[in-house]
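TA notes, week 10

Several of you asked for a full example with nothing omitted. So below is the full record: structure tokens for the whole chain, then the designed sequence directly under it. When grading your own attempts, check the secondary structure regions first.
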């Protein structure tokens, strides 16, 4: 009943000939030719008896120009009818279908105008992808020749073109236009830029330096900005730009500023010089330490002493901003100063300035050495004593710590006894061990002196003198040695506050023999000849030696009046005892009865003197004034 030939654009036909024999029962022959079908010649040979009612050639004609969004679109349908008889004069009638095969009605957004064209008054982006085709037929208007409809034309796909708007430009992860993006130095910067546009946009990433950049330069010719290991040269403005042929003169763009977070190790200055090690003299004028941090954001700067004590915490002064001429990076400098006055040797060590910013911490370190004269450090157990006790069966060994910097050295040792001097040869007569620094402190030096020659009791009271040398000063220190044994006898034993029944005893402790000593107080009666008349009695015992006191005292009670006594003070240690004695006589008991003869005579004499004085005063001030010289004769 029907024969349809559909010739696709790629069909390489130069000539097409159809020969229809009389017996071919074809009611309709339709040739649907797409606009680009490369057919150069088409010949139809129709025999007279071929029962063909209609032959229609149908063409869908696209718009002459590219459709743009927000403009009107009209689609025309062109068709040729070869229905018999030739020259039948019937008009063509058109219909339009969408991609689902449904006919377009007059009330829809897309409608058929009076010219048979498919029309939309304002094309939108949402219309992209819609498909339309036309159908044609001879309009017989009820003629008995029949109604023969063509097949659908090729489909026209709606594809409106448009320039991107600002909202069409998307950056992932999302970042607002004009935003500030903070990244750590050494981190990565990755953003993907896309734009909704037709035809597809050309997308570029542009960069302008934050230092002296006035124009943007291309940094990435794609939609992906990917920078790894951010450095000090990367801060600035980054811009994604999207454009196609419809917005060449006004591309859309989104810009953000990269703020690089960093904290560099500070520069350190001492006395205005970029040095990290300095020496000053003890009690000298103040010294200024300075740390300069290149940082973003502003750092919190904390100063600490060599012992870790916090000395100062502040936000740095600044920023002082500028371009480093060597590295060509922008610097933001913050400065903090620490002023110290009247430094002592113990203040020597490493001072640190710690910068904290954005969870980062860096440190500057400065070594300050305070020069001081060597002297004993007064460390308990390691202080240089005036006397040392040694056990004769063992070598003499003296340990002490000296305070001083630069660290001193022992260059010479000599000794003297009873005015005779002896040179103690180092490493032969004495060995010197030196540890510096001691206890982690540069100003402390540990010394250990050991006698390599044998010492005897005859060396007791030998005085050793050592010469300590440092580059700035030379000092000598001495100590006496004594052999270990019983304590020396107490010194200067005296009696004070002697009463009729008690007495107070005072004494000075002697050398303790190298061990702790205690004291006891004993007494006994003596006769007129000083001979003992009773046994020793203990008044007090185990009195400890009081360190740091000059005199020690104890009271003896329960004595008899007007009686002579022998008192002794015993000093004892684990090796023996020494004794010091004195004699004392108690007072008599005071009388408690009436007045004695002496007292009566004294009182009478005092009364007589008083009366004489009264008579003289009466004469001088009263009688002589009243009677004059004559009265004086009568008075006599």
């Amino acid at each position: 009943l029907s024969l349809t030939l559909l010739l696709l654009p790629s069909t390489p036909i130069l000539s097409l000939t159809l020969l229809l024999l009389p017996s071919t029962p074809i009611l309709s022959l339709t040739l649907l030719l797409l606009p680009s079908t490369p057919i150069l010649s088409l010949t139809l040979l129709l025999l007279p008896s071929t029962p063909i009612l209609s032959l229609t050639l149908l063409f869908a004609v696209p718009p002459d120009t590219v459709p743009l969004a927000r403009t009107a679109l009209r689609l025309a349908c062109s068709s040729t009818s070869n229905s018999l008889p030739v020259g039948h004069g019937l008009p063509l009638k058109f219909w339009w279908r969408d991609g689902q095969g449904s006919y377009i009605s007059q009330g829809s957004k897309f409608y058929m105008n009076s010219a048979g064209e498919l029309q939309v008054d304002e094309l939108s982006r949402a219309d992209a992808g819609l498909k339309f085709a036309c159908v044609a037929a001879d309009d017989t208007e009820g003629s008995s020749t029949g109604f023969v409809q063509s097949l659908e034309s090729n489909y026209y796909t709606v594809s409106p073109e448009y320039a991107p708007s600002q909202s069409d430009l998307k950056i992932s992860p999302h970042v607002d236009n004009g935003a500030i993006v903070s990244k750590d130095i050494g981190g990565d910067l990755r953003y993907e830029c896309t734009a909704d546009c037709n035809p597809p946009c050309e997308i570029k990433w542009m960069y302008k330096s934050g230092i002296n950049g006035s124009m943007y330069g291309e940094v990435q010719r794609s939609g992906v900005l990917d920078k790894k290991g951010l450095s000090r040269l990367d801060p600035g403005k980054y811009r994604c730009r999207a454009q196609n042929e419809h917005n060449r003169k006004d591309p859309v763009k989104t810009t953000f500023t990269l703020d690089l977070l960093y904290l560099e190790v500070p520069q350190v200055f001492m006395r205005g010089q970029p040095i990290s090690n300095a020496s000053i003299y003890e009690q000298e004028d103040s010294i200024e330490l300075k740390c300069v941090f290149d940082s973003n954001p502003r750092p919190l700067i904390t100063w600490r002493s060599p012992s870790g004590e916090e000395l100062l915490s502040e936000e740095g002064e600044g920023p002082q901003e500028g371009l480093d001429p060597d590295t060509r990076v922008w610097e933001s400098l913050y400065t903090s100063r620490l002023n110290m006055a009247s430094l002592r040797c113990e203040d020597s060590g490493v001072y640190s300035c710690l910068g904290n910013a954005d969870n980062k911490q860096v440190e500057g370190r400065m070594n300050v050495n305070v020069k001081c004269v060597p002297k004993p450090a007064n460390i308990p157990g390691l202080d240089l004593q005036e006397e040392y006790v040694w056990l004769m069966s063992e070598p003499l060994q003296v340990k002490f710590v000296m305070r001083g910097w630069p660290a001193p050295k022992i260059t010479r040792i000599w000794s003297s006894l009873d005015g005779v001097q002896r040179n103690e040869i180092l490493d032969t007569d004495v060995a010197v061990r030196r540890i510096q620094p001691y206890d982690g402190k540069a100003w402390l030096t540990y010394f250990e002196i050991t006698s390599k020659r044998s010492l005897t009791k005859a060396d007791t009271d030998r005085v050793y003198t050592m010469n300590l040398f440092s580059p700035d000063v030379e000092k000598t220190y001495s100590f006496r040695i004594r052999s270990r044994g019983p304590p020396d006898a107490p010194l200067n034993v005296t009696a004070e506050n002697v009463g009729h029944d008690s007495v107070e005893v005072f004494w000075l402790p002697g050398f303790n023999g190298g061990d702790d000593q205690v004291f006891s107080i004993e007494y006994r009666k003596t006769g007129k000849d000083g001979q003992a008349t009773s046994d020793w009695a203990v008044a007090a015992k185990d009195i400890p030696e009081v360190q740091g006191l000059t005199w020690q005292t104890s009271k003896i009670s329960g004595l008899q009046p007007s009686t002579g006594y022998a008192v002794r003070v015993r000093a004892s240690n684990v090796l023996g005892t020494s004794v010091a004695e004195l004699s004392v006589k108690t007072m008599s008991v005071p009388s408690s009865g009436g007045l004695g003869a002496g007292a009566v005579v004294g009182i009478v004499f005092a009364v007589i003197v008083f009366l004489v004085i009264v008579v003289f005063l009466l004469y001088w001030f009263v009688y002589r004034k009243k009677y004059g010289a004559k009265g004086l004769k009568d008075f006599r």
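Helices lie at 597-635. Use that as a sanity check on your answer.
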